[in-house]
């Protein structure tokens, strides 16, 4: 999902999650369009592709994938449309956009474990170097909610990886394999 600064998880930011000081100009809650972005994907783009390819939507294993803000948007998509998506693949999840409050807001809204999969990963250099404490909290919450590591939930830290497309492409096979692997 996109890099547009208006596409992150709309509800948490409009319901009180605040970006840390110094980033508020980048993220204005009243300008967020994450819900309409998600609606466009689930109600227009995906159905058009599914119909064009003559697929059975009810039996598709549909994943949403994104990096950085797109990683947040991917998790958010699963909170909003667990009936549509089976899997969320969040690379370099940009937790620092709302810090621990955002972790709490998003992870608390995920569907219960059982019919979905979630992948979260990040590197250790550049912007990704700030994500570790937030991802550790997300991991704790996932475990407490009953998600099973290495089964329906995966978290990875890529040593030396930066926050960019090149780094994400080096490991892209892993979340894709996780998504497509049958439990």
Protein architecture, described:
The protein is of the alpha/beta class. Helices cover 41% and strands 13% of the residues. The chain is built from seven helices and four strands. It has helices spanning 10-14, 34-52, 69-80, 99-109, 132-144, 165-171, 173-180; strands at residues 63-67, 87-91, 117-123, 153-158. A four-stranded parallel β-sheet has the order 1-2-3-4, with helices on both faces. Strand 3, helix 5 (132-144) and strand 4 (153-158) form a beta-alpha-beta unit. Helix 4 packs parallel to helix 5 (132-144). The two termini are 25 Å apart. The relative contact order is 0.14. The mean pLDDT is 90.
Query: In what range is the share of β-strand residues?
Result: 5-15%
Mean pLDDT: 90
How many beta-strand segments? 4
Low-confidence stretches: none
What general form does the structure show? globular
Secondary-structure class: alpha/beta
- For the largest sheet, list the strands in their spatial order: 1-2-3-4
User: How much helix is in the residues?
Assistant: 40-55%
Biggest beta sheet attributes = 4 strands, parallel
Between the first and last Cα atoms, what is the distance in angstroms?
25 Å
Helix-strand pattern, N to C?
Answer: HHEHEHEHEHH
Provide the gyration radius in Å. Answer: 16 Å
Helical segment count = 7
